[in-house]
Design goal:
6-stranded parallel beta sheet, globular, WecB-like, EC 5.1.3.14, UDP-N-acetylglucosamine 2-epimerase (non-hydrolyzing)
């Protein structure tokens, strides 16, 4: 039996790793899979675990009020050392770019355990954008033995850094697996604000902001643009699940509080959020994951950042990188609201991030690598 431990600690990681955990469980004839969570984010993580019915074998529960990166790093490293020494896994699987991801890879390396990196190879080449995710990605890539790149572009990034091509597998992104399994055409929102909106006659702009580099004046610029656009179109409604960071919340309330047709709501669980994407007309966000998720549902995305580690979406035409300036955000939003051909071109562009089969590919690659199966993985290629 091949013993695999899957490690994650935040809501985005959990969403993207849940389909892989489920797929690994289907191969119990050759794989013994266990799940360890750091709970770097407690409440948001638990929502996803409940939705996908995943019961962790180990829960480090490291989250504390006002925790720093130093706190997360030290507590996760010590906790994972104990888990790995007890279980002695043959492979540790981590995802993406969080502090949990980097620390799990480091702990595995210290104990000379192979590391598989899911969503490998994303790069902005700016170590402070996004912070600290860009460096977490780089460091995890250096430590990893198997690199599960979501796209051919991510593979090229790894090759350019000297990673052996034999250790890189282009799989598509597991977030598409999770999304397609969650969205339903008959979904009914429990939230009173969301349930009252007529999605057939209203154009809903879904907005999220949380990046550290956008705190302060950049966020104010974004919110002023939103207010300006909403006042100009009577059929536009803004749904804004506001991040729990008090530095974000204070600016949101100052700039958007009490505005007509701008609905400030609490962060949503994954299931209603995924279905809200599906009901939206347009997404404006500084999130990384939404650049992959929204195009899978035919929703254009305006990225409220100056850099992106997902250039495939820009090249494919499913997203536009607009920055945080008030004029640029307002102008691009107006264009998508007014120019139907332009909107249609973005909405109908081929999503370069996946087809819902990434988890199956990753498991097949692992089985082939460790001699459980003779059949090699067939790489993902957007149609």
């Amino acid at each position: 039996m091949l013993k695999v431990i899957t490690v994650f600690g935040t809501r985005p990681e959990a969403i993207k790793m849940a389909p892989l955990v489920k797929e690994l469980a289907k191969h119990r004839d050759g794989i013994d899979c266990k799940v360890a969570v750091t709970a770097q984010h407690r409440e948001m993580l638990d929502q996803v675990l409940e939705l996908f019915e995943i019961a962790p074998d180990y829960d480090l529960d490291i989250m504390r009020r006002q925790q720093s990166l130093f706190d997360i790093t030290s507590r996760a490293l010590t906790g994972l050392q104990e888990v790995f020494q007890k279980e002695k896994p043959d492979l540790v699987l981590v995802h993406g770019d969080t502090t949990t991801t980097f620390v799990a890879a480091l702990a595995a390396y210290y104990l000379q355990i192979p590391v598989g990196h899911v969503e490998a190879g994303l790069r902005t080449r700016d170590k402070f954008s996004p912070f600290p995710e860009e460096i977490n990605r780089h460091l995890t890539g250096v430590l990893a033995d198997l690199h599960f790149a979501p796209t051919a572009n991510a593979k090229q990034n790894l090759l350019s850094e000297g990673v052996s091509g034999e250790s890189i597998y282009v799989t598509g992104n597991t977030v598409i697996d999770a999304l397609l399994a969650t969205v339903r055409p008959d979904y009914v929102f429990a939230d009173q604000v969301l349930s009252r909106i007529d999605y057939g006659s209203r154009r809903v702009l879904l907005v999220t902001t949380h990046r550290r580099e956008n705190l302060g004046e950049p966020m104010r610029e974004i919110y002023r643009a939103l207010r300006e656009v909403t006042e100009s179109y009577d059929d536009v409604e803004v749904i804004f699940p506001v991040h729990k960071n008090p530095l974000v919340r204070s600016v949101v309330e100052e700039e958007l509080g009490g505005q007509n047709r701008i609905h400030l709501i609490e962060p949503l669980d994954y299931q209603p959020f995924a279905n809200l994407i599906n009901c939206s007309y347009l997404v404006l966000s500084d999130s990384g994951g939404l650049q992959e998720e929204a195009p899978a549902l035919g929703k254009p995305v305006l990225v409220l950042r100056n850099t992106t580690e997902r250039p495939e979406a820009v090249d494919a035409g499913t997203v536009r990188l607009v920055g945080t300036g008030r004029e640029a955000v307002a102008s691009e939003t107006r264009r998508l609201l007014e120019e139907h051909e332009y909107y249609g071109k973005m909405a109908n562009a081929v999503n370069p991030y996946g087809d819902g089969l990434a988890s199956k590919r990753i498991v097949q690659a692992i089985k082939h690598k460790f001699g459980i199966s003779k059949e090699p993985m067939q790489e993902f290629c957007p149609s």
